Amino acid sequence: MARDNTESSKEVSEVEKVMMSRFANRFYLHREVDLEAITGILNAARYAATGGNVQPWRVYVLAGAAKTALADAIATAHETASGEHKSEYNYLPAPLPEPFASRRNEFASVFYGSLGIAQEDMAARAVQSARNCRFFDAPVGLIFTIDRRLEKGSWLDLGMFIQNIMLAAKARGLDTCTQEFLSRYHAVIRTQLPLAAEELVVCGMSMGFGDPEWARRRPQMPKAPLEEFASLHGF
Questions:
Q1: 17, 99, 212, 220 — which has fewest CB within 10 A?
Q2: Taking the domains of the chain in order of start, what are their residue ranges?
Q3: Crossing angle of the two packed helices 122-130 and 100-114, in degrees rounded to 10
């Protein structure tokens, strides 16, 4: 007997469960990730959609001493001369229009509030932000670049590649956190990694086994309901 389409449409697939369970994790266990798992994730992620099969991504994956060296260099730059470092692109406009500004403010309130950090406590917020420099103490750090000669369409492709990595990692029991913060330290990153001149640093990513204690008490970040962002026609 054929299954009722309405009934089946309400079921959540295993892929969708992975998508909805993923979140930006900033707290990790001191537990190594096998190289086989990392290469498996990257092998799956390379099947991301890409216009004209351009495949505009490059990723540098670091662990152990290599990750420590990069983290130390970035942390030193952040502590001593943060004002001298700036990303090569603008992630968000200033000022940020509505409703996006309100959503960003809500994120800050929910996230920092979960850590017991008051909205106005800029010093404590700065300490938490500085943890970006060390990939939030995750065992694996990734740096993503794109050829600066490409256009915005290729950035869409890179985003799908990064999303594939996050989902493949989650499916293997690993957590991730993308880090636009690290793009401002592209000059420092170049001293540690063999980037070509045309490579533009887009972001970093932390990857590892998330701290289960944090996973239990972390707040659920609010997401806009479907009717707020989708317009359906002809159904």
A1: 220
A2: 21-80+132-218
A3: 90
In 10 A of CB 175, how many CB atoms? 26
User: For 21-80+132-218, which CATH superfamily applies?
Assistant: NADH Oxidase (3.40.109.10)
CA distances for 191 relative to 68, 141, 174, 188, angstroms: 14, 16, 29, 5
pTM assigned to the model? 0.93
pLDDT in tens, 74-85: 999 999 999 999
User: Tens digit of pLDDT for each residue in 16-32?
Assistant: 999 999 999 999 999 99
Q: Would strands 175-179 and 199-208 be described as parallel, antiparallel, or unpaired?
A: antiparallel
Q: Kindly list the distances between the CA atom of residue 74 and the CA atoms of 79, 146, 182, 229, in Å, as whole numbers in the listed order.
A: 9, 20, 8, 38
From CA 150, how far away is CA 147, in angstroms rounded? 6
Q: What is the rounded distance in angstroms from the CA atom of residue 138 to the CA atom of residue 159?
A: 21
Q: Is 95 left (phi over 0), alpha (psi -120 to 50) or beta?
A: beta
Strands (E), 100-215: 140-147, 175-179, 199-208
